Structure of MBL fold metallo-hydrolase:
Amino acid sequence: MSTPAPPVIELATYPGLDPRIVLLRAGEEVDAAFVRTQRFDLLIDTLSTPDDCRTALALLGSRFPDLGTRPLTIVNSHMDWDHFWGNAALAGRGPIIAHAAARDRLAAPAARQTLAQKQAEDPRFAGVTLVAPEITFDGGLQLDGGDLTIELIHTPGHTPDHLAVWIPEIRTCLAVDAVEMPIPEVWSRTPGDLHQLRASLARIQALDAAFVVTAHGRSCDPALVAGNIAYFDALEQRVAALATTAEAPAGHDLSGEGEALPLSPEGTGLRLEDLVSLPSGMDADTRAFYEGFHATNLAATLAARRQAPGAA
């Protein structure tokens, strides 16, 4: 199997987005974000490798020649590999902040297992070391940038440690992975994580943001939040309508007890494309990726149905 080409790093924005925000785009892999305030610069996520992060910082330095002389604060939105594996590039540059649950994730064996797997598959990750955040907090945290207020909002559900960033003066939410085009993924197949993700989506919607910037899917459209909420609402309603195996089409188990889940049977209305509109140009690999998200979301919804009062 050939090694995929590394992503091209570039600076990006969206029409109307405040110029104090610059996106650090690593191809189709992920977007990080840079915010310039009067008092300090803020980097939300560090991309997938130290080399990617250094390239992004060099591009920012061309845009902002005083970058190296101003205070820098780094926020790790969550401990998924494509969001924080670039931390080593920022040693000594400024404090790295994350939610307290990030330390638990980083200490878990899965963190090093993922790194070993990625390093075995792709030499691009050979220089990655896991660098922990230096400051963690429970609940939320507010940073005073002078002209801009930076509110770090705990938005669990996609992961236990997930943070979104709200900047009220410019009505902009950097939602990271809590909102995604076409759908976000719940952390596990358990009702608790599903409830948390849906609550986080509701919290972001309540901000009434003018811009909701995602880390994947290249979207800043606040309507995407309502679309993600509608997807989970429709999934819940269709699972409730087909709540028992007896009501399902022959041969399809909707109980959620087995590994096989009804992602494609005709007549169930539970396929991904039954619930959301997929971009016409979506390639097969990307579609399969989001069908995996849908499988997890469906399993969690089935589990929640089994726990609901009065469920069959």
Q: What stands out?
A: Residues 234 and 275 are 7 Å apart (CA to CA). Residues 245-252, 255-260 have pLDDT under 50 and may be disordered. The chain is about 30% helix and 20% strand.
